[in-house]
């Protein structure tokens, strides 16, 4: 009887460890996907910084082959602009100002949070 009880307890322990292993494996896969999407969003943002954007229309988007996301530029009436790069759930922003017929991107780099007061202005169209 004692041997049977030990077999049952051992089986339950192995089942619990298996469930825990599957949960961690799933979490690792999600983290890997999030890191890849984050790198893609940052790459799209950097590509958008060197892309020659026309100053019209005020909202425009570009896609880059090999990336699942896209990068968009929003121009505002106060002479500022916002570059938005998104890849699935990851989004990066870069602020800029309009100087004549060109864009000057801020030297402080990108942001992983919306730099505008109105969050609707930070949405990728």
Defining traits:
single chain; 125 residues; alpha+beta; 5-stranded antiparallel beta sheet; 1 helix; 39% helix; rod-shaped
Overview of the molecule:
The structure is a single chain. With 125 residues, the chain is α+β, with helices and mostly antiparallel strands. 39% of the residues lie in helices and 26% in strands. A 5-stranded antiparallel beta sheet has the order 1-2-3-4-5. The longest helix has 49 residues, at 2-50. It starts with a helix and ends in a 20-residue tail after the last strand. The mean pLDDT is 87.
N-to-C terminal Cα separation, in Å? 68 Å
> Which regions have little confidence, pLDDT < 50, spanning 5+ residues?
none
Question: Helical region count?
Answer: 1
Bin the strand percentage: 25-35%
Mean pLDDT: 87
Class by SSE composition = alpha+beta
SSE run: HEEEEE
Rg over CA atoms? 23 Å
Q: Helicity, in percent?
A: 25-40%
**Which word captures the global form?**
rod-shaped
Mind summarizing the main beta sheet?
5 strands, antiparallel
Number of strands: 5
Output the strand order for the largest sheet: 1-2-3-4-5
Provide the fold topology.
Blueprint: H1 2-50, E1 59-63, E2 70-75, E3 80-87, E4 90-99, E5 102-105
Antiparallel strand pairs: 1-2, 2-3, 3-4, 4-5
Task: Please provide a brief summary of the model.
The chain is of the alpha+beta class.
């Amino acid at each position: 009887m004692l041997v049977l009880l030990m077999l049952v307890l051992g089986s339950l322990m192995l089942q619990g460890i298996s469930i825990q292993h599957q949960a961690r494996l799933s979490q690792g896969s999600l983290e890997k996907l999030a890191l890849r999407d984050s790198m893609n969003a940052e790459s799209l943002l950097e590509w958008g910084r060197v892309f020659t954007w026309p100053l019209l229309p005020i909202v425009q988007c570009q896609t880059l082959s090999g990336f699942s996301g896209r990068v968009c530029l929003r121009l505002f009436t106060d002479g500022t602009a916002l570059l938005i790069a998104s890849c699935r759930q990851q989004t990066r922003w870069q602020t800029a100002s309009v100087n004549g017929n060109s864009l000057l991107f801020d030297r402080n780099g990108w942001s992983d949070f919306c730099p505008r007061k109105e969050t609707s202005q930070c949405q990728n169209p």
